[in-house]
Amino acid sequence: MVFMGIDIGSTTSKGVLMNEEQAILAQHLVHAGIGTSGPAAVKRELLAAAGLQDEDIDYTVVTGYGRRTYAEADSQVSELSCHAKGSAFLFPDVRMVIDIGGQDAKVICLDSHGRMTDFVMNDKCAAGTGRFLEVMAGILQMDVSELEQEAAKATQTLRISSTCTVFAESEVISQLAAGAEIPALVKGICGSVASRTAGLVRRMGVEEKVCMSGGVANNGAVRRAMEEELGTEILYSPLAQFAGALGAALYAMEKAGKEKEHE
Amino acid sequence: MSEEVRKPRPAPDPASAKYKLNMIAKQAYDDVAEAKKRGELIGWCASNFPVEIPETLGLHVCYPENQAAGIAARGGGERMCSIAEGMGYSNDICAYARISLAYASGAEAEEQPMPLPDYVLCCSNICSCMIKWYENLSRELQIPMIMIDIPFNPDYEVSDAETAYIRNQFLDAIAQLEKITGKKWSWDRYQEVMEISGRTSRAWLAATAMARYVPSPFNGFDLLNHMAVMVTARGKPEAAEAMETLLKEYEENHNKGISTYRGEEQHRIMFEGIACWPWLRVTSRGLRDRGINMVTTIYADAFGFIYEDFDGMCRAYAKVPNAINLEYARDKRIRLCQDNHVEGLLVHTNRSCKLWSGFMNEMSRQIGAACEIPVVSFDGDQADPRNFSEAQYDTRVQGLTEIMQSRKEA
Fold first, then answer.
1. Residue B354: strand, helix, or coil
2. Helix or strand or coil: residue B313?
3. How far is A151 from chain B (nearest CA, A)?
4. Which ipTM value was assigned to this complex?
5. Minimal-distance CA residue of chain B relative to A119
6. The whole model's pTM is what?
7. Interface of B with A (CB under 8 A)
């Protein structure tokens, strides 16, 4: 049997195909999220990569901000539960997930069964999310994927004190105009994201075994800054950005099993 | 796509509590407008000001908070807030205040008109920031302001000294109103009003307490509509009668195993904070679609006052939810959660309400720990629609539902 999890976010769409042995058959990411052709492209690429047809998929669960408008799924689950489940699959002992996505940040607590027990999300402001990093990368004429390497060259950190993305943009421009070293500035920008999210983590109380998921998890500079802020190791998997889709695929498997029991 | 065909609603039953309560809420505005036309002096009154005082004196007053909620619920919140911001008021301040100050400046609000006041009655027990709102009304309109200061209470009980402090202010407010309006205070009439207010409050609190039954005989969002009468008319005999009808209906619902909550009540939550009036339908539907009934909220119970005499009234108004310390406020909510079998707490964080949002994080954390229930918060505003994101609300409510469901299955 084949199960699909699809995570439609604000800036990207991610998908995972999984079989009943919980083996990942394919994963794919498209840089186009809700309201775009991204979800359809993800599905097309997944099927092509796994050599499968549409009808081979037994059950689909959709998650993410686009979950309510994706008509092809059998059911939908919140990205909170999906990131919890996907992260617990990647790290069975994990008790806390920090998910920083395109437009929000979440801190999720898990029990020993990988079930979500509590969560907290950022307020309505986009500061401290992936969008913040995109805006900053834009000012520095970089791709967001280049930020980690640039920060690694830094010999010092230039702190960004504004929490508001718009004000931080002015602050970065002023620093550039004053001749600031770009690596130090990038390190400060990454530290700013970590610092803001760390506040959410502290509100929940830091649990042992913390991992990061979501697109921002791929930025090692943010992960390291988070480790310094929280004083604990941050677990990371190259599949971090797929944690939501992975969780959705696992839910698809569970839900298909339950439906079968009822038949 | 074909358009949704809505069934015509049956005519409201004049004997029903809903009809009676709606009529009283409407009549309250009509009465004030008529009084103004007759040339009587009318007042604007804070929602937790002792209504017994104007009622005993036979004064007609209306309630800016209630008006602002009505304007916001009917779609005028953003327009009125923008007008106030154009006058120089920051969008960080209370949206009720912005709407009210815009209205007082002459901005029209067909959503809920009311006559301009000849005096204002302010009481700090619901919000200390309200003092500045009412001071501005008083200055802009050049009318007297009667101010009752109820100190924030760090204790669980109201001390004799505090009671005396409040008593003297109540008596002074009566004297000022007699002077302003020419009306005379009667202790016999006060006794009657006190008894009616107590009767209304007892019926209201008994009705809200019917949520202790599973399933609840009512949808908690009903309370948000019905409480308008508790704010504006609790000292009137028709209000007492309507609240007793409401209680009777809920008792009958319970006996018959029915509810005004449509659908199966799968989860029960407490809602913390002021209602999100511009998004009432969205916030209500987000719960109902997931089988969640909001069975209790301190906001509704805040307008029920039980006391035996004048000093008792002083103490009652010093114990309203926004005038008490965090621990006492927490304990009251824990009691509501326990009595009503609450499984989760949904917190409306309203950043323009400094008092309510200031201690909300810590208080809700303590409630969650004590009741072993999940706590989820969302950003919104009681009257400014610009401070709410439907997608963010939806994700948080779904997350809360999934935790509650998972706990039931575990």
1. helix
2. helix
3. 32
4. 0.85
5. B376
6. 0.90
7. 349, 351, 361, 365, 368, 374-377, 379, 387, 389, 391-392, 394-396, 398-399, 402-403, 406, 410
